[in-house]
Design brief:
The chain has about 450 residues and is mostly helical. It folds into three domains: about 150 residues, no CATH class; about 40 residues; about 230 residues, MetI-like (MetI-like fold). About 75% of the residues lie in helices and about 0% in strands. The protein has 16 helices and two strands. The protein has a two-stranded antiparallel sheet. Strand 1 and strand 2 form a beta hairpin.
Length: about 450
């Protein structure tokens, strides 16, 4: 039985546990729920929890460990001369065995040991699947009957269920934190490996990005990995996008929250938020086929040389894309300002515009800063629009009509292709990613400082 069917069986037993546990609680109380310590649904949840959690933990561990264990057993049973092959040739042998086991075509005639290993692989998989089925369903049944026998008026089911919910929340938080730590450390280790090949000062202070292989050095040392052109392109395009997005988004939020009729707001706000759901590749096509040529033709009409792929094109399109991040969040934040502040301002004789400028906006400023920060982070991490609308040329220029590129674009370009993973041309992507992470973290810390400063002032 496959893991999917085992999961379905566990879920069915979980649903049955909820119904049976609830019914048994009522039966032990002779139908009088008031004599129970907890409400009947808690008893059902208690039985369902015991039926599901141990079996699901076993299923998850089994699915993760099964491929590794089976591959290790198959590899250890190969002839010794095959196991002594270099890693790349041994990998080809293992791929051939896997293809034979899955019924896929192989090149040439497979050797006898590969056919035997494929048969052993299929046998081990079948045995493992049956063992998983028996153990998981058996564990679910054992948990089911253990909890079912404990159900009674004296059982503190609510306490146990809520304690389990707290541990579930802690586990989810730990997964999020550990995932972040894992990402940071994976980037950090590869970045240190990169800096063992390229001096950090050449990376952080270099003004030329040219990571091609050079003819010098037996280690395949690369050319120049200057970060500054990429960092400048990221900041330049993000600045243009924020010049477009912040005024439009903020003013539209003020209109929707303070001036628009309820019916107008009910229609306009969802239409505005549709912009956030459009795929970025669609924005890229729009910039490449419509806005870029438009800017080029307008520039030619007034005697300016404007590239069809330029920082201006990418920044404007990206700004349109992130308008909903500023508008929608700012609208919700402005609406959260207590009406009593507005009423007090009106009572003192202030007009609506004065109330918005001197009362509502300062009170909502911490949240507005957060929405702008979210928009900045979205702009810094954008890739597809930059590739299609700004090009891939790493330049340091103040001309918005010229082509530039960003850190994220180079991360993608350095990780694609047929370069070796341990080459500086590939490892530089991790250094770029870690740098971008530090920059974004700095923006978050600065925004948090601003939020705390104004929150103390206007609370």
């Amino acid at each position: 039985m496959s893991s999917t069917l085992v999961l379905a069986a566990i879920l069915l037993m979980t649903l049955a546990g909820f119904a049976v546990g609830r019914q048994r609680a009522l039966a032990t109380a002779d139908g009088h729920a008031r004599t129970l310590h907890s409400r009947p649904p808690y008893y059902g949840t208690y039985v369902a929890m015991w039926a599901a959690v141990p079996a699901l933990l076993l299923l998850a561990l089994w699915v993760v460990a099964q491929p590794t264990v089976i591959d290790m057993v198959v590899r250890n049973n190969l002839p010794e001369d095959v196991r002594a092959l270099p890693p790349d040739k041994l990998s080809l042998v293992l791929t051939t065995i896997d293809n034979l086991a899955n019924g896929r075509a192989v090149v040439g005639e497979a050797p006898a040991y590969a056919k035997e290993a494929a048969a052993r692989l299929l046998s081990l998989r079948a045995t493992s699947n049956w063992a998983l089925t028996v153990l998981a369903i058996g564990l679910a049944a054992a948990g089911f009957f253990f909890a079912w026998r404990k159900v009674g008026p004296a059982l503190r089911a609510r306490n146990d269920v809520e304690r389990a919910a707290v541990w579930l929340l802690i586990a989810c938080s730990a997964i999020a934190i550990l995932t972040t730590i894992g990402i940071v450390f994976s980037m950090l280790f590869e970045t240190l490996h990169f800096f063992s090949m390229v001096p950090p000062q050449d990376f952080f202070f270099g003004t030329v990005w040219d990571p091609r292989f050079t003819a010098v050095g037996r280690d395949g040392s690369a050319g120049q990995f200057g970060l500054i052109p990429l960092l400048w392109g990221t900041i330049f395009i993000s600045l243009i996008s924020m010049i477009v997005a912040v005024p439009i988004g903020l003013l539209s939020a003020i209109y929707l929250s303070e001036y628009a009729h309820r019916n107008v707001r009910a229609w306009v706000k969802p239409l505005l938020e549709i912009l956030a759901g459009i795929p970025t590749v669609v924005y890229g096509f729009f910039a490449l086929t419509t806005l870029g040529p438009l800017f080029r033709d307008l520039g030619a009409a007034v005697g300016l040389e404007v590239s069809a792929t330029s920082a201006l094109t990418a920044g404007v399109v990206m700004g349109v894309m992130i308008i909903p991040f500023v508008s929608s969040l700012s609208d919700d934040i402005i609406n959260a300002v207590p009406q009593s502040l507005r009423d007090g301002s009106y009572a003192l004789g202030a007009t609506q515009s004065e109330t918005i400028k001197r009362v509502v906006f300062p009170a909502a400023l911490p949240g507005i800063v957060g929405s702008v920060l979210l928009a900045v982070s979205r702009a810094i991490g954008e890739t597809m629009i930059v590739v299609m609308a700004a090009g891939i040329a790493a330049k340091m220029t103040l001309n918005p009509f010229d082509s530039v590129t960003t850190v994220t674009v180079k991360i993608v370009s350095q990780l694609t292709g047929d370069l070796e993973f341990n080459s500086p041309q590939t490892l530089v992507a991790f250094a770029l990613g870690l740098t971008l992470f530090v920059v974004t973290l700095g923006l978050n810390i600065y925004a948090l400082h601003i939020v705390r400063k104004y929150r103390e002032q206007y609370d």
